[in-house]
Amino acid sequence: MNTAWRRSHPVALVAALIDSVKDTVALIFAMLAIALPNRDAPIVLTIIGVVIALLVACMLVFPVLRWLTTRYRLDENGVTQRSGMLNRKRTTISYDHIHAISSSSPIYMRPFQVVTLDITAAGGESGITLRGVPLSVQLELEVARQASGTPAGPAPAVAAGTRETGGQGWCAGQVPGGRPVIEGELVFRASVRDILLFAVTDLGLFAALIVVYGFIEQLRDVVPEAMMDNAQDSVVRFATGSVVAFIGTVAVVFAVLVGASIIGSLLRFHGFEVWRRGGDLVVVRGAFTRRITTIAVDRIQTVAIRRTLIRRALHLCSVRLGLGAVATAEGEDADSTGADVLPVIGDDRVYAVLQRMLPEWELVPPRMRRTGRGLLRYYLFTPLAVSTIGMVGAAIWALASGDAMAWLWMLAPAALMVWWGLCRCLKAAAEGYMLPDGKRIVAAGATMLTLFTVFTRRSRIQSVERSTTPWRQRRGVESLTLPLFVSNGINTLRFTALRSADAATLAAWAEHGLVRADTSPGRRVDAAAGGMVDNGYVQDDEWRT
């Protein structure tokens, strides 16, 4: 292994200069906007000219200095990066502490066979980004990490026509078209139909309305206010002129959102593939910017199957791996990372694909014990209480002000009650668990209007937190929280309301590995380890698929 200090490719300097120009040009235009009304004030113009000159100098000099003073190396123990002239910084990550390696290769980097590498370790702030490094560096890191004993399983042989990085490990090259060549077993490939299904069922497309609204508000800073008001009034008059116009406007807005979602999804998930290579999962995705994320299987904390209400109605779901570090490549949205191994897939295929992808997890459809059954009132108590207090406060304020329009403020807590109550009803119906053995747990629940099923191991649980109130305790009802060491996605197994017997069962399992030996109806409940026996019995209606 070459342990000398290395400098990134000059294309990284060009990219840094472009980013610096984009970040600085807005400030320069702002300075010019200040200078125009003060053309007759020489002092003001002089100061603004000096500030603009300094901004231009910083825009050109800082990226060059940063590129000249940044070095990296791979030695026997880990990868190290140093940077800075006055404030010198050195970061080292041991090979056996690497959770994931993500690479991004924009179009302008592909001709030079260089990538940007994001190396993540445990924790949200620990990581190294190597910009403009040869593709072979990623291969060196993979070989070194495998040699450190992090991933399990044998490394496949090197394929012909690719670049070898050592006597063991794996290989990934690129064909002239830029498509990566990965050695291993292809376990999933997203078709165009899969990507379209993801786009039209993604609730995130409605968030685009907020982005559009924010863009319109920013236009007010540069467009005359009268012009904006006239345009807004014209649109409102047209949309509310008739029922047909209103329906047409809504249809056009929805079509634009869906179209934007489809285009964005095709760019983000073009060529989406998941490969199993020894003890690693390799996730490949992206059109203009090709991203490759390598995840060590033994670093996976959870496997979460998620279903929005729309996807549940269409018998679709998505799968995300929970990691101790976020596997996000540079420029990638934190909500869509390499940990999303199945963006969308049919319910009838998900477990078959997961068994090929992660055979050591033994993922099968669970038979859940629904802990929220018969406890709906405990889920709805807080939403009803908070909303009632809000409505009473709004009514008192309306009576005191004497304004008839003030009564409309009661709609806000009423809408909150409906929304919050709906989410809590979904949680009450969804929350549950299954203990396949002394090492694994399957937990189900809901976040907002998204259902999830989480598979994890007992070793991933950090603590057991049981809580109750005096009136709950008299009725044998508790809340249970099992925190997980996960930086992305679901990081807690939370049971809002469950009976004390279930809480005790889960606590005993988390602390000692005690589980039900046979969960079939009418069978005796035993402990899998430790010599303890629970003399209860499981009733026929306590377990359901």
Report on this model:
The chain is α+β, with helices and mostly antiparallel strands and 545 residues long. The chain contains 13 helices and 24 strands. Strands 6-5-4-12-11-10-9 form a 7-stranded antiparallel beta sheet. It is globular, with a radius of gyration of 28 Å. It starts with 9 loop residues before the first helix and ends in an 8-residue tail after the last strand. Residues 150-178 and 517-545 have low confidence and may be disordered.
Give a nutshell description of this structure.
The chain is built from 13 helices and 24 strands. The chain is α+β, with helices and mostly antiparallel strands and 545 residues long.
Terminal Cα span:
53 Å
Kindly state the percentage of residues in helix.
25-40%
Strand order of the largest sheet: 6-5-4-12-11-10-9
Biggest sheet, open or closed, and with what strands and sense? Answer: 7 strands, antiparallel
Average pLDDT number? 79
Low-confidence stretches: 150-178, 517-545
Rg value: 28 Å
Number of helices: 13
Number of strands: 24
Silhouette: globular
User: What structural class is derived from the secondary structure elements?
Assistant: alpha+beta
Strand content: 15-25%
How does the SSE layout of this entry go?
Layout: H1 10-35, H2 42-69, E1 71-74, E2 78-83, E3 89-94, E4 100-105, E5 114-120, E6 127-134, H3 135-147, E7 172-174, E8 180-182, E9 185-189, H4 192-201, H5 208-219, H6 225-239, H7 243-269, E10 273-277, E11 280-285, E12 290-296, E13 300-308, H8 309-313, E14 316-323, E15 342-346, H9 347-357, E16 369-370, H10 376-401, H11 411-430, E17 432-434, E18 440-447, E19 450-457, E20 465-467, H12 470-473, E21 477-483, E22 492-499, H13 500-512, E23 524-526, E24 533-537
Antiparallel strand pairs: 1-2, 2-3, 4-5, 4-12, 5-6, 7-8, 9-10, 10-11, 11-12, 13-14, 13-19, 14-15, 16-17, 17-18, 18-19, 20-21, 21-22, 23-24
Helix pairs in contact: 1-2, 4-7, 10-11
